[in-house]
Structures are given as C-alpha cells and as structure tokens.
C-alpha cells in the first residue's frame, strides 16, 4: 500500500508539471503526433523531413535538433532518414499521472535561417495497471440498530490508468445484507460506499466477511480486491458528526513547519466512551502523512514539512472522527497551496555564434529559452541586457529569445564583449538570474597602415659609407594578425631623372632606410621620395609618406684660387706706382670653395712677403693694398704669398703667389731690377717686356680710334638712342685712370666703357659691370691673350 501511495504521489507531481508546461505552450499552432505508451526505444513516431517539407540533406544542413522542456530528452532525430524516434520507453502514468490527454510538447529548432516548429506528442494509455486498494483488509463496526439504507464509506482503490482503462465500478460478494455504490469525487476518482439492505442482528450473526472488487474498463478488464470484515456492535446509535462536511484552507507554500493550518471539530450526542471522539486521517496517502499531522484529541492539522507549489498545488485530506463505541464520521479538508516567488528564473542556452566578423550586419549571436517554475506573475519572466552594448534581445516563439547584433562592429574599438543577460520575474519580491555570454569579434582588413608622420626629414653627411643606415619610417595598422603585418617599399619617384634605386633602399620588414652609395653635397644637396606601407590583408590596404633627404656638407673641398692664376704659366706681375698712397689697391686675390656654409667662408692672410710691412691683405675680401708710402729705397720687385683658408673643421687652405713691380709710372717700361742689373740675361728679358708693352699700347690706341669712329657713326644713325658711345674729339687725359676707385683695374672684372666728348671734361664714364667668369679656363685665355694688358694701361 505504501508503494502504491508513493507512485500515486509521483504521478500527481508529473501531472502538475505537465499541466504547467502545457499552459505555457497554449495558443501556438503545432503539429500533433500520437504514440501508445510503453513502446520500445527507437520506435518511429513520424518522418519530420516529410512533414516539414524538407529534404533529408536540407534537414541535416540546417542543424535540426529537438528541444524539449526540462533536461530529459524523450526523442531523437535521425539526420540520415529525417525520422523522429523515441529515445526511451514512455510511461504515461509517470509523465502525466491522471492528466488526460497526456501531451508532450517539443520544438524543432532549425538554423540558417532560424526557425522554430512547435509539435505535440499525445501518449495513448494502455491498460497496464490493475486497481489497487490502499488497504487490503478493512474492519468495520456496524451497530445492530443501523437502519437499512445506511451508507457506510469504504476505502477506495486506485488505478493509474486513465479513461476507460481507469477504475470504473465496485462490486461486493456475498451481498445478502449489503450492496455497494460507486461514487465519483470532484477530481474524478471513484470510491465505494457500502449500503445496508437488511437490518443486522448481532445475536444471529455477530461478524460478516465480504469481498470488495474494483474493476477497470480495459479490454480485458483488470481488477483488485480487498477484504471487508464487519463486526456488528451493540447499539451505539449516535455517530460523531463534523461541524463542516468540507473544510477549505489556503496555505502559503513558505508557511513554517509545525504551523497549524486548520482545526477540524466533530461532536457525538452519546455519553461516556460512546461520546469520546478521536481524530485520524482516513485512508491518507503516504505524501499526505509526510506533509501533515493531525492531533487526535484537538483536531489541529499541522505542517510537518515545507509545501512546494511547483510539485503539488492542492491536497484533499479525509479526516475521520471516531467515538468510543466505534462509530465514526468523515469530513474532507481541501488544502490549496498558494504560490510564493521562491524560484528564480532559469535560462537554457541552445546555441552560441562566436566569434563573428566585425563587418557582419545584424547577426544572431545566441539562442536561449527562459522558464520559471512559479505561476502567475511569479512565473512571468522579463529578459534584458545592458543598454550600452550594440546588441538587442529579440523574442521568438514561446519562451525562446535570440541575442542579435545591431549592425557592424569595430574590433579595433572592442574585440570582446561579455554580455550579461538578466532574467527577472514579476513576483514579489522579484527574483533575477544573470547569465554571461562571451562574444569574440574577429578582424577584417578595414584599416590601412598609418605612418607615424606624414613626412620625414633625414640628414646625411656627404661622403658617407655605402649601406649606411640613414633613418627609419614607421607605420602601424590597427588590425590584427596578417591584416596588421606591414611591408614597406619605395614608390616610383615623381622626378624621372632621380636614380632612386641607386641612392637608397628600404628594409621591407622594419622600414629602415639605407644609403646605397656615397653622397656628394656638391652634386646632390637634397632629394625626396615616397615610401609605401602595405598590409597583408585581402584585399591589401596601403598608405604612403614623403621622405626628404638633406645632404649635409663636409669640408672636403679646398679653396680654389681664380686670380692670380696658379697654373704654372707665366707669372702675372702687378704694377704699383711708387707715388701710390697708403691703402692703394694693388690687386685682389679671388678664390672660391666648392663647399657651402661656413665650410665656404674664406679668409685671407699674408703668409710671406719679400719686404714685410710694405703690403697688407684684407682678411675678408682678399684685397692686397699698400701699407705705407713707397720710397726709393724699396726694392722694385716683390713676391707675396697669400694664404686662402676656409672655415671648415678641419680647415682647408690654398696659397696664391703674387709678383709686384714698383714703377715710377705706367708709361715707364719694365726697368731693370736693381738686383738684376749686372745680369745680361735679365736685361735681355726686360727688353722683350718693353717691346711687348709698346706693342700693346699701340694696339690699344688703334682699337680706341676704331671704337671712336664706330661710335660716331652709330650716334649719327641713332641720335636719340640711349647708352651709345662716342669717341672723344680732344686728347686723352694725362692722369692715371683708376677704374675701381682704389688703384689698378682688377683682371677679374671687365667694364663697358663709354668715352664722351664735346664737354671738355675728357673723363671716363663707367656704365655697368659685366659679371666675371670665374672659370679657370676663361681666366687662362684672358691671361694668355694679353698678359701685360692691365700693366700697360696708361695715357699720356
């Protein structure tokens, strides 16, 4: 009997669970299947591929799976055939208890695209249980004064089957004094009542033994029996009577243990032992006896364990009041369990899609379902996530939700999201459950490499060694993996004449720049080129930067003397009249330096002189001037060594040698030098010089006459023209013409000269200087053509 009661209680729990699940699935259109209980594992229920209108390959490709509520998997789906099979033997009584019809709800979850198909499976009952009495033997005491027609309650039997297979009626044998009535409770259970047909006589028959049979409606029918032993009592003509035939009480499921939930009360009009009443449960199940206890004297019914609305939401308890004479009365207590919010919501994760590409649009990241074992508002659930995330929750069929991204993500901003899904019920107080879902964002090549600078300026000192590291460029890529691996390269130069490939090279991996050959500042002072940075993504992205290379000058060129020429030809002699004043410009040393900056700043100094203190050299412009008045005692011929030095480090220098001849006037031929008078060879050489000087003066005079005639003819033809020259009509002045204003005419300058006549002033007018040609070859040609021209330029 105890085993039967435990099974009955378990069936009631399963019944309540499926009633709750059935309520949550109500209102959705579903496919319906049916199967008889106790079918073996692997039994074919239906072909889902055919029912869904899908091919078997498509069903497998879309990842079809069967999702049932709870942790039990009653079904299995064959991806090879598309058949829906039983995963285990089903016991209708264990799953649904007395609930009819017995419906199992399940969903078919399809991916790509996401689709839910709701289905129902009805489990058909078979007659596999016989009616069982809670008590195999019943003992009754009946007063002999009991009137015919009196109804005596009997203990009922229980059949776990439902419908026609459940208990249908009761019979009793032998039936000379009694017959049995079959009654139905409000919950559908049938119970027997024994009806007295003929009055009893204790003296004639003090005891009776009857067999009570319970029959179900199966085919073939099953039955169960119980033995009824009746003892005929002496007259005790008043049985206890309850104040209420039915007690109804509502109890919170969190009511403390040992709380009194109801007190029943009965009275008996008899006195003595026949009027003493004791209370007891009447044919109570094991679950009721574990949950409640009844005080036999006071009638207080107490809790002995906590109630659980989710397991059993109501109890029907029969209580018997029995007097000392054995008479009894019966009352029923209906205990309604009131739900409290004592179960937090639950989340069941079906699938997670991670990682996802950062450029994907609206994408389903996770599929999950929520549930709450409570009822009413306590079982209603809300789902939410943080507001500052680029995701949202999208409700699906029934209690399923999908976690969806709002659009494209940016891995460079955030590569991982920890999404907290908060599930809250609507009970009081509200209970919540948090579930974390981690979503990783995979990289796509959406960022081009970026240089740290838009342009780079590098400085390289000339005469560098080949393969010298001159600098580096650097670019970074915000992507990751191969998308962030940067390769450097030289881009084709914009100047087609720039031999970039022979000047620099770049390390493709780290951006180091190297000079391939030695650079020469005097040949190439600066150049620029473009560098590209390309990642290894697909498609590859790139960027470029400008690199400007400035060649720094090194002091690698010594000063070069343009005048006087130092090429080993006939020396150039400067003529200085003895009447020259101090500061008289003897000549000017002209030199250049191929370097730049301070490496080309030249300074001059008198290194050596025949007679120290007679001549001086200006340090900044190289002008050689007399330092004092000349006297007759000064030697006629002087040799000067002028040092030309640059300002580099270390400094470089050159030496210019000057020959100076002191004369009484420019018309005086080369006079024998005092130290050369005794030498006949030097006298012959002086004679030659004088002859050349006379020839030069004659040639100059003839050139002047021709020039005068040409200018006069030109003035006649173009009288109004500006800048034309005329030959003076009067004689030339007899004084020395000083072109530079400080002395003799420097050989490194030429002037356009115009002679003007008619005014009587007879003076030169210098119109404009012609920029000299400092090329050594040009200077050599001037010197070779007329080396003594400047020395003989005198008019008398």
TrEMBL record:
Residues 1-26 form the signal peptide. InterPro entries: Cadherin-like_dom, Cadherin-like_sf, Cadherin_C, Cadherin_CS, Cadherin_N, Protocadherin/Cadherin-CA. Its main location: membrane. Keywords: Calcium, Cell adhesion, Cell membrane, Glycoprotein, Membrane, Repeat, Signal, Transmembrane, Transmembrane helix. One of its GO terms (cellular component) is plasma membrane. It comes from the Eukaryota. One of its GO terms (molecular function) is calcium ion binding. Residues 75-133, 134-242, 243-347, 348-451, 452-561, 576-671 form the Cadherin domain. The lineage of its organism: Eukaryota, Metazoa, Chordata, Craniata, Vertebrata. This is Protocadherin beta 3. The chain crosses the membrane at residues 688-711. It is a single-pass type I membrane protein. GO terms for biological process: homophilic cell adhesion via plasma membrane adhesion molecules; nervous system development. The gene is PCDHB3. It is found in: Cell membrane. The keyword Signal applies. It comes from Pan paniscus (Pygmy chimpanzee). CDD domains: Cadherin_repeat.
